[in-house]
Protein 1
Amino acid sequence: MFGTFTEIERKIINDKRLSREDGIKLFSCNELSWLGALADYVRKKKCGDIVYYNVNCHVNLTNICTSLCKFCAFGREENAKGAYAMSVDEVIAVVEDAMNDPNMSGLHIVSGLHPSWTFEKYLEIISILHKKFPNLYIKGFTGVEITHFAKISGKPIKNVLFELKEAGLQAIAGGGAEILSDRVRNLLCPKKATATEWLEVAEVAHSIGIKTNASMLYGHIETLEERVDHLIKLRDLQDKTGGFQTFIPFPFLPKNTVLGKEVKQTSMWDDLRTMAISRLMLDNFKNIKAYWVMLTVPVAQVALNFGANDIDGTIHKETILHDAGATSPRSLKEDEIIKIIHDIGRVPAACDCNFNILRLIN
């Protein structure tokens, strides 16, 4: 079947790991329906028909950032137009607004790297939120932010993570991985965590019982080989620790970024191809996320048949990606997510930030 891809299909059917060469070869495959069917076969075998989602609220504490990556439309210099830094009261107000949803279960907290905020300030915010909203699961910060906290506090990463865990943090967000290539990072985001530092945060977090997520930002200046290498680096660490919960392939949204005039937005074809290949290469990840905010709702729904089994959540009010021109809604209602999942014959499962099922909706 499809000539050169027969051996890859045989490996998948027999639960054999794909090589770097296999991954690169898959990115040359023009048989999208075959890729999708193979990824969906693996998804069903590994995960069954459950699709995970959260009833969650995104809280972006500040867009003031020392990094100002070329692919980011969210970050601002401190005195720039549109720059903001939320007070504790403002953070609480955002969460209280989200609590109008009786099924609200979790917070997703990520921000810019503020030049003058201390690590203690971030700790205080997590601690206050945990005490005021004890029934909400808190997923917060990326490997980039944790590295930043270690540098500004002078503390080892393990100490930073222990203190965040004691304050109420229960999982770490998957952002900031971008492409785990020094070449790419030196060109696009030289002022923030290196590939090695991002992976170190994940490994240390796993060693002390904090689950993390992983992502890949694709469709800018990376090569297809670098996409495959990125997946293999995540797969290698997962072999070692088993601490990654879900993988999120993020298509780059170029509007309003420095790269906006140089790079075109990815096609649906590339998004679905990348989703499927991620499922096939990441054989030790249970969950693959179709992040509807970046993909759009219709593409995310299709992606659930290209290897994905996680669609993120209601979000409440998304900011970072809409600054980059995302055309999706800023939030979805829970019944809308349930319908998206039911429409393709799958079973919606509301979960917390560690994928513990709270409700099954048959």
Protein 2
Amino acid sequence: MEEFCLEVKEISKSYRRKKAVDKLSFTLAPGQILGLIGTNGAGKSTTISMIATLMKPDEGQILFHGQDIRKNPRLLREKTGYVPQDIALYESLSGLSNLKFWGRAGHLHGGKLKERIRVVSQMTGFSPEMLQKRVGEYSGGMKRRMNIAVALLKEPELLILDEPTAGIDIQSRNLILGAVKELADKGTAVIYVGHYMDEVEKLCDSICVLDAGHMVCNMPLGEALHTRNGKITLEQLYNGLFEGTEQGENGCL
């Protein structure tokens, strides 16, 4: 069995001669949840846009199951679910109609589509009654959950989530976190971009911390949170990285 499904090797991206991402490298194994964190402008969105093949890196390689996605982007697109910050749904249609539309767009039909709709609806907390309502009537949390349900229809091997719990209610947040954990337990690799440190600490196996396009920490979360003075929180580690304290010097780059 191969060790990694995704390998990011020394990728860089510049805008108007300013580097948004500079020689970034990390790996992701099946079933692993990687927390990608950093301040606004750190390079998180640029990084996941390159991985999702929405833009090309200026330098470096991104390998999916050992194949360069610049040469074969379709391979990754067919096996990746990408959930952006913006809601990508038709609000005039019901939740069920959205799932049918996006499922057919992903080449799902008949009994297979019906079964996938049943599975993802249950996973993201949608009852048959809720699916009949127009998406425009949904709360913000319900829209984000439906956004995720759409991404899960094709049973992705890689799931990219860009701040999926931003500004939503506790119930929706817990449903989303539970669904992500369930997917990872079944072997899906996950890149989770978040800014709630308690959420990332609870969910993720490893972390990558970016600052101005550079990697400042890349390691298993359990190792990162243990110092010679005892266990710390992710928030303490994160603050320590930028304050130069002992909490930020626990093997991070």
